[in-house]
């Protein structure tokens, strides 16, 4: 072993030197050169840092640099995240998205253009005027629809979600709110009065029947029992025999 090479290294190094740091790594660790000023130091890591991708070989695992416009990559030709000012599309970093796609500034990716989608129209509402359905001949009726899919930045905008048209109905007079309320109140009082009258009549009838029953029972208790009238034929029989 070279005098400058040591095997009692720290930090996952298999071999190292005082000047260059790690020279080789323990199994499954990646070897990468870090620049410190004008000097490069070898280090051993469990995964490659940002801007690098890992390659495994029988003798050593290395971290290689991504392309200049890549922030992270799977291989040198397949980027997974782009640096600022670039948009990711199919593993590549582009300054401008292809036709048919749009730049998503939130994810920094080229995505498909999404157009607005709406539901079917609802049925037309009843003919109304100033919120009422009576007291007029000409009014308006409306229908609405809902937005199912909002558009992306370059997608087709959403159309109107409500429509109105004029309508004609047979004129009918509106019932005055106060009069209608008064009539309902009178009907309610009359109904309650009738119910109370029926209840009182039923109570009086039950009381009268109970009083009559009690009177009959009292009469039966106070009056003496009637003696049985004698048989006239039996009383006259001895007289006839004497003659």
Automatic annotation (TrEMBL):
Q: Where is the composition biased (Basic and acidic residues)?
A: 175-219
Give all residue intervals belonging to the R-spondin Fu-CRD domain.
11-110
InterPro entries, alphabetized = Furin_repeat (IPR006212), Growth_fac_rcpt_cys_sf (IPR009030), R-spondin (IPR051514), Rspo_Fu-CRD_dom (IPR043601), TSP1_rpt (IPR000884), TSP1_rpt_sf (IPR036383), TSP1_spondin_dom (IPR044004)
Query: Which Pfam family, any one, appears in the UniProt record?
Result: Furin-like_2
Where do the segments described as Disordered lie?
Answer: 169-243
Keyword Secreted on this protein?
A: yes
Which positions are tagged coiled coil?
A: none
What the protein does comes down to: Activator of the canonical Wnt signaling pathway by acting as a ligand for LGR4-6 receptors, which acts as a key regulator of angiogenesis. Upon binding to LGR4-6 (LGR4, LGR5 or LGR6), LGR4-6 associate with phosphorylated LRP6 and frizzled receptors that are activated by extracellular Wnt receptors, triggering the canonical Wnt signaling pathway to increase expression of target genes. Also regulates the canonical Wnt/beta-catenin-dependent pathway and non-canonical Wnt signaling by acting as an inhibitor of ZNRF3, an important regulator of the Wnt signaling pathway.
Protein's name in the database: R-spondin-3
Name of the encoding gene? Rspo3
């Amino acid at each position: 072993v070279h005098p400058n090479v040591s095997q009692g290294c720290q930090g996952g190094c298999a071999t190292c030197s005082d000047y260059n740091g790690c020279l080789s790594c323990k199994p499954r660790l990646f070897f990468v050169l870090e620049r410190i000023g004008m000097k490069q130091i070898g280090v051993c890591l469990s995964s490659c840092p940002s801007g690098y991708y890992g390659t495994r070989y029988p003798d050593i695992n290395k971290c290689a640099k991504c392309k200049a416009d890549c922030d992270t990559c799977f291989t040198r030709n397949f980027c997974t995240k782009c640096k600022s000012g670039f948009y990711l599309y199919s593993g590549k970093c582009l300054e401008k998205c292809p036709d048919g796609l749009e730049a998503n500034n939130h994810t920094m990716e080229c995505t498909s253009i999404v157009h607005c989608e709406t539901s079917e129209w609802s049925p037309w509402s009843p003919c109304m005027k100033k919120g009422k359905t009576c007291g007029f001949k000409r009014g308006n009726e409306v229908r609405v629809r809902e937005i199912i899919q909002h558009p992306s930045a370059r997608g087709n905008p959403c159309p109107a979600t409500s429509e109105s048209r004029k309508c004609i109905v047979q004129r009918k007079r509106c019932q005055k709110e106060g009069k209608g309320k008064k009539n309902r109140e009178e009907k309610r009082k009359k109904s309650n009065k009738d119910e109370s009258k029926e209840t009182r009549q039923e109570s009086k009838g039950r009381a009268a029947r109970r009083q009559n029953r009690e009177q009959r029972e009292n009469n039966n208790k106070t009056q003496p029992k009637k003696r049985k009238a004698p048989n006239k034929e039996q009383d006259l029989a001895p007289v006839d025999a004497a003659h």
